[in-house]
From TrEMBL, chain A:
InterPro entries xrefs: Bact_Chemotaxis_MeTrfase, CheR_C, CheR_MeTrfase, CheR_N, SAM-dependent_MTases_sf
Protein name: Chemotaxis protein CheR
Domain CheR-type methyltransferase residue range list: 1-253
GO molecular function, one term: S-adenosylmethionine-dependent methyltransferase activity
SMART domains in UniProt: MeTrc (SM00138)
Domain of life of the native organism: Bacteria
Automatic annotation (TrEMBL), chain B:
Name of the protein: protein-glutamate methylesterase
Reaction(s) this enzyme catalyzes, per UniProt: [protein]-L-glutamate 5-O-methyl ester + H2O = L-glutamyl-[protein] + methanol + H(+)
A molecular function GO annotation: protein-glutamate methylesterase activity
Positions of the catalytic residues: S12, H39, D132
GO BP terms in the entry: chemotaxis
Organism name: Pedobacter cryoconitis
UniProt EC number: 3.1.1.61
Pfam families: CheB_methylest (PF01339)
Record's keyword terms, sorted: Chemotaxis, Hydrolase
Alphabetical list of PANTHER family matching this protein: PROTEIN-GLUTAMATE METHYLESTERASE/PROTEIN-GLUTAMINE GLUTAMINASE, PROTEIN-GLUTAMATE METHYLESTERASE_PROTEIN-GLUTAMINE GLUTAMINASE 1
Any GO CC annotation of this UniProt entry: cytoplasm
Length: 275, 187
């Protein structure tokens, strides 16, 4: 992004967001503006768009480009065992507690390309809980879900992921979980066996089940306060008593009226529903 | 000089020393916020605000997402997130792709701030070994803000301010010992 003055104004961003809502039913109006504008500018220059009018026309009339637009303006950066301390707490504290239940239902909201879903699956397997767990991994974006379902990640990332895995308390040989396929690491089928990938839009869709653990990390940072409250309510409705809610390292339940019903797990952004 | 509404300091390798030298002399009554975006290793989060806070009587804190930006406070960008400035003068954090191999990227903060604060923004780029911040300074200038760099001759790693001097229009080139006074005079 080297454009000196923004080629797209704030008003034009609003126009695009209104179009998406009207034509496609995607509501981005509650998203933080600075981030979404940066994403739009990035795509505009990446695709060498020549004018706002043409850009807008293409989004509204070319379904394939609309898909690309949604894929590109939503952030899909993720990694396996990101913030290893967080996954260590899942492994040592949260999942063993849930392990006493006959069945464990987990919702991973905003799962993007699936790296976290496979990370959780690995931990469940090592705790011998995978066979009695179901992980619903959802995202608003069908393109990333297709990738997630394949369970193939860049081989070049595996060194980093293996380090994260060890720091998160993993004791196995990380490479035993995948087979190298040229530049891709294909994760074993049994890790996938309890994963359900499905579209779900946090802005417009309702609760679809009751869970004992909901993870939604680095999604709320993109929402304004109103939308954050709305989504936290959705999670609250979808969480059983004594269930856990896990957020990203810079996200918090503190400003929500719900917080009085939750107790924080020390040192991590994980809250237990006690009220 | 036009009234300053925000000062953003970007730095990479060799910039911590500069901050530690500059902070002690800052006036306790700054009429604007200072936002510090420095590259550092992920995980060393709480250390930097603590370290800096020992050198100044101003409030030093790591940025929380959606936090309103207040005068007289020194904000430190968290590691592994981009810090963006919203139109209503609050922060939002962003976990998108690295820019110039960096997250936080100085460019992302400079560029979003440039549009918000326009002529009342001052951005200072310190020592560093890559060119993050250069595009940001170009944007700052385009929106009418003020650009400053550490004098490359005084930088532990001169590449970053040097690249800025080549590609962006720089208003002030500052030696370390002149930075404190420069900042105090922005009030």
């Amino acid at each position: 992004m080297s454009q000196e003055l923004s080629v797209i104004t704030d008003e034009q961003v609003e126009i695009l967001l209104a179009d998406l809502l009207e034509h496609y039913g995607y509501d981005f109006t509650g998203y933080s503006k600075a981030s979404i504008k940066r994403r739009i500018l990035r795509l505009y220059s990446l695709d060498k768009q020549v004018s706002f009018a043409e850009f807008r026309y293409t989004i509204n009339n070319d379904t394939a480009y609309f898909k690309r637009f949604v894929e590109q303006i939503t952030v899909n950066v993720t990694e396996m065992f990101r913030d290893p301390g967080f996954f260590k707490t899942l492994r040592d504290v949260v999942l063993p507690k849930l392990g006493t239940y006959p069945f464990i239902r987990i919702w991973l909201a905003g799962c993007s390309t699936g790296e976290e879903a496979y990370s959780i699956s690995i931990i469940l397997k090592e705790l011998n809980l995978l066979h009695k767990s179901l992980i619903y991994a959802t995202d608003l974006n069908p393109v990333v879900l297709e990738k997630a379902a394949q369970g193939m990640f860049a081989m070049s990332q595996m060194k980093q992921y293996s380090e994260n895995y060890i720091l998160s308390g993993g004791a196995k040989d990380f490479s035993s979980y995948y087979t190298a396929n040229y530049s891709l690491a294909k994760f074993s089928e049994d890790l996938k066996s309890r994963l359900i990938f499905s579209t779900h839009n946090l802005v417009s869709d309702h609760s679809f089940n009751e869970f004992q653990l909901i993870l939604c990390r680095n999604v709320l940072i993109y929402f304004d306060r109103d939308l954050q409250h709305k989504v936290l309510n959705l999670f609250d409705e979808s969480l059983e008593g004594l269930g856990y809610l896990a957020l990203g390292s810079k996200e918090t339940l503190d400003f929500s009226p719900l917080s009085k019903n939750y107790k924080r797990v020390p040192a991590e952004k994980i809250w237990r529903k006690v009220g | 000089m036009k009234a300053c509404e925000a000062l953003i300091i970007g730095g990479s390798a060799g910039s911590l020393d500069v901050l530690l030298k500059v902070l002690p002399g800052l006036s306790a009554a700054l009429s604007f916020p200072i936002i510090i975006v420095v590259h550092r290793k992920h995980g060393a989060d709480s250390l930097l605000p603590e370290l800096l806070s020992g050198r100044t009587s101003l409030i030093v804190k790591e940025i929380d997402e959606k936090e309103p930006i207040l005068a007289g406070t020194i904000y430190v960008a968290p590691s592994d997130y981009h810090t963006l400035i919203e139109k209503d003068k609050s922060f939002s954090l962003d976990y998108s792709e690295k820019i110039n191999y960096s997250r936080p990227a100085i460019d992302a903060t400079f560029q979003t701030a440039a549009e918000v604060y326009r002529t009342k923004l001052v951005c200072l780029l310190l020592s560093g070994s890559n060119s993050d911040g250069v595009n940001g300074l170009i944007s700052v200038k385009a929106w009418g803000g003020i650009t400053a760099i550490q004098d490359p001759a005084t930088a532990q790693v001169s590449y970053m301010p040097q690249q800025a001097a080549i590609h962006a229009k720089i208003d002030y080139t500052l030696r370390i010992e002149d930075m404190t006074e420069f900042i105090n005079l922005l009030s």
